[in-house]
Amino acid sequence: MFKASPFKLRMYEVCPQQYKFTYLDQLAADYRRPKPYLTMGAHVHYTLKDFYERLEPTQRTWPALEQLLRQRWRENRRGFKDASDEQRWGMKALQMLKLFILKNDVTTTPAMLEDYYDMLLTDQLKVLGRIDRVDHDAAGLHVIDYKTGQFDEAEVSDLQLITYAMIVHARTHQPVYRASYLFLATNQWYSIDVTEDLYQAAADEILERVEKIIQDNSFQPTPNRYCRHCDFIDICPRSAEIKTKLTNHEF
Length: 251
Ligand code: SF4
Known about the structure:
A hairpin with a 2-residue loop joins β2 (about 110-120) and β3 (about 125-135). The protein has helices spanning about 5-15, 15-25, 30, 35-55, 60-75, 85-105, 160-170, 195-215, 240-245, and strands at about 1-5, 110-120, 125-135, 140-145, 175-185, 190-195. It is α/β, with parallel strands linked by helices. The radius of gyration is 19 Å and the shape is globular. Iron/sulfur cluster binds near residues 15, 223, 230 and 242.
């Protein structure tokens, strides 16, 4: 059974070699380095989950949200250069959550909260995704994916949003009418209207991408602007060339 997630498919599109190191050679645990933006992002995601899961609507206040972030932060403080670097990332997280509570109605309890959800696309292909939140209102279900980085068109994927909507629809049998990214740093929403006729096109696209991966027998390294964050840069076949480009700010 092939398991496909938007994250996995995107990694292959960006760099087949990185995909091979991660999913075929399974080297991620050996080479993964903690990174400040990943630690901060994980804390913000889990804090928002705790906020909705543990607190009643009347308890959802700024002091309560801040307290939840501080609890999560104590559990994992890896990836920061030093105390001032950690403080800087901590301030970013606090600012995002403050903006979130100021700009959004937090009294409605979501229908689904952050977890891995999946569906069978064929008897040989499972599609899965980590879905942050699903709200239920009069129009139907609204799938929401939090982003802790700045708004970046390269990070926006309609296929990812439709895939999440399709998974939620398959699990709940209820209509999903909207799927959105919420960029927490600026409270900026990127939304698409979802209709069921989008699902077949998304399924076809996923099948095509998976077939391409299955047929690949070279998994070429593809230098790109994300190489600086790649855990495998030291063992990448194009390591020397990439490091030179990074030094010369060519990415
Ligand atoms: S360093 Fe760049 S080219 Fe090499 S595996 Fe990583 S992402 Fe791919």
